[in-house]
Amino acid sequence: MANLVSIAKTVGSNRIVPTISIPYPLGDPNTPKEEQWKLRKHRVEVALDALAQNIEEATIFEVKI
Is the dihedral of CA 62, 2, 22, 33 positive or negative? Predict the structure, then answer.
């Protein structure tokens, strides 16, 4: 999971899941608690799925929310 995807690619990360922002990578304090939970849960699910994928080269996994 990375805030700065370009840097993650530069340092050689092979699985990259974009996050929301630097101070709040998995949430947005300006949203209701339920919305934050939904954002966090979805990104963690994408990250877990990324770990289970068989990949050959660096891959950026899409986060749809």
Answer: positive
